[in-house]
């Protein structure tokens, strides 16, 4: 034992009253009046005397305090400030933790260009933000395993099956992103978690749709000229999705053609051009009435600000005692095309804005069937307004 070192004993540390006690070599025990105690190492570096805390006695034993003191005294002999060196190590450790929340945000940033509107709506990130990050966000991604994932998704695995599926898929993307950054992660963790969670009981259900034969009666009831009634009428007549319908602007309409920006067309991620919608005379009449409500360029504004919400139209149908929902009118139109016309498949799918054919086929196709669709939508409007229901034969080309 070196002279002047290791003066204290474990019993002395435990029973000593309040005060300061030297163990030797600059290591001191500081005991407070409240019973608490901590280790302090006194050092002189670059001609300056400093005190370095080594931790509480309740956490750091006498042996551990002496070992730490030996390490730091060795640094001082090498003319290295142990306090600054410890702080540097802490900063480096923090940089290398790579919390899951940081990885997720970085993965989101790298994928924004692939998402509609650069992901500003938040749909890509929200499953992670709501169901993963609250419990796992501050966990180093390298420590994440299938049991952690299983435990956080188990509460919603069956009750919110689609949301849970999206959260799991997004998490898998985050792990691949971490691996691409050079971090050691378990790329199979999400699949292992899926196995632990088991098969989901939830079965995906189609959005309730109104039978096409019942659409005329519903349409005739939308007669008060309100924003909600007019929006539902144009939704039915055009077969578009709710978002582009609710965000329709005056400058998008040129004659009897409504041009929807490519960014608003769900399911057309590879589209490089906008989508044209032919407007029947009945649809043009609805638009003319909607212009009386226009605000800030939008034809269907909400009462306060922005545009009418999808929930507004859905609640209107719900209060009317209907199971069908606004999005279901796309199915009504598609069923009418299939059952009451002889429209070729490509034209029928294009009516709904669906991508048709493979990438090579689409590259050589130079038509969006606008004239065929114009004739078809006129016949649909005639059915919707109760004028006639004769079978129509559409010719492709």
Automatic annotation (TrEMBL):
A Pfam family of this chain: Arm-DNA-bind_3
Taxonomic source organism: Pseudochrobactrum kiredjianiae
Family, similarity comment: Belongs to the 'phage' integrase family.
Chain ranges of the Tyr recombinase domain: 205-377
InterPro entries per record: DNA_brk_join_enz (IPR011010), Integrase-like_cat_sf (IPR013762), Integrase_catalytic (IPR002104), Integrase_DNA-bd_sf (IPR038488), Integrase_DNA_bind_dom (IPR025166), Integrase_recombinase_N (IPR010998), Phage_int_M (IPR053876), Phage_Integrase (IPR050808)
This protein's name: Tyrosine-type recombinase/integrase
UniProt superkingdom: Bacteria
Keywords tagged on the record: DNA integration, DNA recombination, DNA-binding
SUPFAM superfamilies for this protein: DNA breaking-rejoining enzymes
Keyword DNA-binding: yes
Lineage start: Bacteria, Pseudomonadati, Pseudomonadota, Alphaproteobacteria, Hyphomicrobiales
